[in-house]
Design brief:
Layout lengths: L8 H7 L15 E2 L6 H12 L4 E5 L8 E7 L2 E9 L2 E6 L13 E3 L3 E2 L6 E2 L5 E3 L20 E5 L2 E5 L7 H5 L2 H5 L7 E11 L3 H7 L6 H4 L7 E2 L5 E4 L2 E8 L12 H14 L5 H8 L8 H15 L9 H5 L1 E6 L3 E6 L2 E9 L7 E10 L13 E3 L7 H16 L7 E2 L6 H14 L2
Parallel strand pairs: 12-20
Antiparallel strand pairs: 1-21, 2-11, 3-4, 3-6, 4-5, 7-8, 8-9, 10-11, 12-19, 13-15, 14-15, 15-16, 16-17, 17-18, 18-19
Length: 437
């Protein structure tokens, strides 16, 4: 007999359709600012943490065909993820075994992996295929010059790599996250929008802004009319975490409740900022809702009806999962915002070894009906530094660039973290565990 484990505590309350206020206590100590400024700390992260954690390199749909490759860079390391066969993906240290040049850059397709410097060539399985004028070298075996493999495993559509050959299994690393997000059916979502940009800040400064919603009412004031940033629940899930933001009700700290037209205009602006469809807002306008109407109660049937109309099954989601924004953090650098219609995924990582430069990747996903084939994944667009990534993201980037500059002030001693920001301290506690082991 199979016994199904029933959710308990906060999870059980959420499953019942409610969103309780539950948070860990605020830390008592300041978080040292040198963690965001120091060259030494950045190098310690690369050698002791990034070299040992599972990290998303790409999505399965980014390499759909045999011979497709995708370069993933972290610090000084370059990893090449390769579709070897229809059912097999491999990952290699992206470096020629002759004189150390990276073999491939970016994305592409090749039936063999050839270094452009001297033509050394490898098969997709990493074995050597050709060494021009090999007789001119001292004798060596084929195995001596095989590409060095990197651990690679998958969860849902996401392909993870780990530079540590002795790392534990990916699913063990993810802990309870796969079970908790399973109702959102991430495997039935396709990447319709993909951008990357360099931001002149420490990667954790960018991450921290997505670990809390405390900032939202001031950096994203347009959203205050339809998103309540008071008493957001937070859960620590092993090394990972979750925060949920209530949608469909104004922020409780607003001095004056917004009128309905203001609320719908704000929703329109926000959805446009992420390139999302605004049919739901159009439907709300047709309802001619009076000021003060409980928008949250109206949203639920509209979303459920809209998803059913296009053949998307969301029956496994609770009512609060249908309406609200659940923000899942996977240590060390992934944020996945799960919504009824899809997901927004953000990946933050160091740009080389500079502690004041990072690469910010943005992937937006839409659900696909079970009866339809998955559309192809959108090609990634590199946005020049300072270029627009959408109005909401631009607000965040403008703010954190100024914040990074402020960290150098002799008048700033360290970060004082509230209960609303405990995901930041939890992430840093987990980071310290890697640095100290």
């Amino acid at each position: 007999m199979t016994v199904t484990e029933q959710p308990s505590g906060v999870e059980a309350t959420i499953a019942s359709g409610q969103l309780p206020t539950v948070r860990p206590a605020a830390p008592t100590n300041l978080l040292a600012k040198d963690r965001y400024l120091s060259d030494e700390f950045a190098m310690a992260e690369l050698t002791k943490m990034w070299s040992r954690v599972w990290q998303i390199a790409c999505m399965d749909a980014d390499i759909p065909n045999v011979g497709d490759y995708y370069e993933y860079r972290i610090g000084r390391e370059s990893v090449l993820v390769v579709r070897e066969t229809d059912d097999s993906v491999r990952a290699y240290h992206n470096v020629c075994q002759h004189r150390g040049r990276p073999i491939k850059q970016g994305r592409g397709n090749a039936q063999q992996l050839q270094c452009p410097y001297h033509g050394w060539t490898w098969k997709l399985d990493g074995t050597i295929a050709q060494v021009p004028e090999r007789q001119e070298f001292c004798p060596f075996g084929d195995r001596d010059v095989s590409l060095r493999e990197v651990r690679v495993e998958a969860w849902e559509q996401f392909i993870f790599i780990n530079l540590d050959p002795d790392a534990g299994p990916l699913l063990e690393y993810l802990g309870d996250i796969p079970r908790r997000v399973a109702p959102y059916k991430l495997s039935r979502q396709y990447k319709w929008w993909s951008r990357s940009t360099v931001v002149p800040v420490n990667w954790k400064i960018a991450l921290d802004a997505f670990q809390e919603d405390y900032h939202a009412r001031y950096i994203h004031p347009e959203t205050n009319s339809f998103a309540d940033y008071t008493d957001n629940p937070i859960e620590l899930i092993g090394d990972h975490s979750m925060l949920a933001a209530r949608f469909g009700m104004p922020d409780r700290l607003l001095e004056q409740a917004p009128d309905m037209e203001e609320t719908l205009e704000a929703m329109q602006w926000t959805f446009d900022a992420f390139g999302e469809d605004t049919a739901m807002i159009a439907a709300l306008r047709q309802m001619d809702l009076p000021d003060g109407a409980p928008l949250r109660d109206v949203l639920l049937p509209i979303i459920k009806g809209g998803m059913a109309q296009v053949g998307i099954d969301i029956t496994e989601l609770s009512d609060t999962q249908v309406v609200d924004d659940y923000e899942w953090f996977i240590f060390p650098n992934i944020q996945i915002h799960t919504l009824a219609f899809g997901s927004w995924m953000f990946r933050m990582r160091p740009n080389g070894v500079d502690p004041a430069s990072m690469i910010f990747d943005m992937w937006y996903l839409h659900k696909v009906p079970e009866s339809m084939d998955m559309p192809p994944s959108a090609a990634n667009i590199d946005v020049e530094q300072g270029g627009s990534c959408g109005a909401v993201m631009d607000q965040d980037f403008a703010n954190i660039v100024i914040q990074q500059q402020g960290l150098h002030s002799s008048g700033f001693q360290g970060f004082r973290i509230s209960a609303m920001e405990t995901r930041i301290s939890h992430m840093n506690d987990t980071l310290d565990r890697y640095l100290e082991s």
